[in-house]
């Protein structure tokens, strides 16, 4: 297991370097320059050129990229924001807790709804309950998150006055964005759990367990669910990583100062240090999450655990 973890961590290094090169190239190819965006179109060309020189934007592409990579690897220095003149990770740490809280609550709620309702739907296949849950899953998976979020604001904030419309003042501010994100991903989880459970409960060992007189609840929860969870765990890990990448639309609708809105604002201002540091941070988090998912595989399925120990 330890050898596998070390191998995965080593593989992560070239992946992250590739991500930095792609993002740096995209930012270099986009039109405009930070000096003009910061000072405005009415600024004098001399002032714009001077600001671009001070920011190092006038240097060749490869020189800027190698300089960024060298400082990041040797000094763990990812630069200063062009716009705020603050260290980029100082701003990331201020916003990351908001995105992390939203992602954790959304994943927990979506997994609770998606997995539990998916099991019920599989057990009651072709029943009225199954049909209702399937239609609901397709509905929530299809509707745009921004529209659903605005409907939640309209009903629970403007009409009923139960919850705040935006901000991060208290835990109540996270309820509506959590529901908006969770319902969308819960629909996909419900359908995935239903299909994997249906495939699992048709296996021979499930028939054997039932033939031996095992209670139906024990058959479903102990024998079937454990084997059906593998693809569900993968999707949960990917959903969590994507949410950490910033639920940009949701954070914008509910005015949450998270990493999603932060990186979009940085792209708009062509604040390359902020974009690079945020992207690298999120890519690292995603790789770690997928590594954790693979380790969870070993605890769910003994066959995979035996493979890791070889």
Task: Please give the structural blueprint.
Layout: H1 2-29, H2 34-39, H3 45-55, H4 61-75, H5 88-123, H6 128-142, H7 145-159, H8 175-200, H9 204-211, H10 216-244, H11 248-253, H12 259-268, H13 272-300, H14 302-308
Helix pairs in contact: 1-13, 5-6, 5-8, 5-10, 6-8, 7-8, 8-10, 9-10, 10-13, 12-13, 13-14
CATH architect. name of the largest domain? Orthogonal Bundle
The largest pleated sheet is described as: none
**Structural classification:** mainly alpha
Strand content: under 5%
Give the CATH H-level superfamily of the largest domain.
MetI-like
Helix proportion range: over 70%
Q: What is the number of independent domains? A: 2
Oligomer state of the chains in this structure: single chain
Calculate the mean pLDDT score and round it: 83
How many beta-strand runs? 0
What is the CA-CA span between the terminal residues? 8 Å
What order do the helices and strands follow? Answer: HHHHHHHHHHHHHH
Number of helices: 14
* Low-confidence runs: none
Per the CATH scheme, the topology name of the largest domain is MetI-like fold
Shape assignment: flat
